[in-house]
Amino acid sequence: MSRLTFSESVELLKSGDLPLLGKLAGDMTERIHPGNVRTYNVERNINYTNICISGCRFCAFHRSENDADAYVIDEQTLLDKIEETVQLGGRQILLQGGLHPSLPFSWYENLLRTVKRHYPDVNIHGFSPTEIVYFSDRFGMSERDILLRLRDAGLGSIPGGGAEILVDRVRHIVSPKKATADRWLNVCRLWFQFGGRGSATMMLGHLETLEERVEHLQRIRDVQDEVLTDFQNGTAATAGFTAFIPWTFQPGNTQLADITKTGSWEYLQFLAVSRLFLDNVTTIQSSWVTQGLTIGTLGLSFGANDLGSIMIEENVVAAAGTVFRSTEKAFCESIRSAGYEPQRRRTGN
Ligand code: SF4
To answer: Which of 74, 273, 287, 288 is the most exposed place for a label (fewest CB within 10 A)?
Structure first.
């Protein structure tokens, strides 16, 4: 079967033919993941600080150091959150934070070491490529050295946060202080060379065009092609992105609050095109956190094979006024109601 091209993908997005897209993407999911098992995870999103110098226009979460509700997590709070996660059966934390202006690098290393000392079996899925680039610039170390030091301190896998749209025209408008698309992708390349696991995300539905959505997919597919070739040649230690997770921009309380929220139809269309285009990424995850559990589960029939994680805690999307909560029981029931067998996935994506 030939690969979906850039222009075919744009045409499919313009077509609006959701049933056709669902059929095509569903068939492809079935080829990649035969059988009726669909996966999910139990984890907690811990944001170690909300203090951030970036001021992204789409973000309702960040604060400046002088704001009354600004915080940097303390050790006991961190450990309490992890303990609660473990008690609920979670074995992974998603550890991300704002781009803090003054914490030393040792603070981040200590954070990881503290978690691993108390919870050696908990995977730390932490520090997005955006944070890695920021650390590199702020601490005058190469991205390679930052990654290696964080890995030595206990970092297990990296989340694909801060990707937004991997097109610099858009990035310059919505998040001008953040890593360029090239630097974001290069952190992933480096990490995969060292044998790390990581995912890629995309925030759609703000100032990007349909073509730019597909350009984002193209850039992920191109890097994945490179990494897979390196993997086969023995020069990369892992097979690249484990998952792709598109989610929709939540405009509440942001500088872009007048943008209309992307609806479920458009979201499912894009999810299906993502599955069809990213033929080299094994897992496509649906975003129940922004779409709700019903649409998130429906995504399993539109190209997704994973429902994401039960978020014991989530702050970033919630700051924009979108709050969906669920339990493992509700997750499993929802997956079964769609005709699939729920199964917890391994950690690291
Ligand atoms: S999205 Fe992240 S980097 Fe941007 S302002 Fe919010 S916390 Fe900072």
So the answer is: 74
pLDDT at 349: 53
Beta carbons within 8 Å of 193's beta carbon, 6+ residues apart: 230, 235, 236, 237
Ligand 1: residue whose CA is nearest its atom 1: 59
Q: Ligand 1: which residue has its CA nearest to atom 2?
A: 98
CATH of 6-337, one of 3.30.1490.10, 3.50.50.60, 3.20.20.70, 1.25.40.10: 3.20.20.70
In short, whether 146's Cβ falls inside 6 Å of ligand 1 is: no
- Average pLDDT rounded to a whole number, residues 258-280: 96
Q: Which of 59, 35, 31, 57 is nearest to 47 (CA)?
A: 59
Does ligand 1 lie within 6 Å of residue 56's CB atom?
A: yes
The reported pLDDT for the residue numbered 231 is 87
Q: How far away, in angstroms, is 175 Cα from ligand 1 center? A: 8
Would you state the structure tokens that stand for residue 286, as one six-digit string? Answer: 């649906």
Burial level of 233, CB count in 10 A (0-12/13-18/19+)?
exposed
Per DSSP, helices labelled H in 176-209 are: 181-193
How far the first Cα of the chain sits from its last, in Å, is: 27
Tokens, residue 304: 């997704």
Measured in Å, residue 264 CA sits from the centre of ligand 1 at: 25
Domain positions in the chain are 6-337
Share of the chain above pLDDT 90, in %: 85
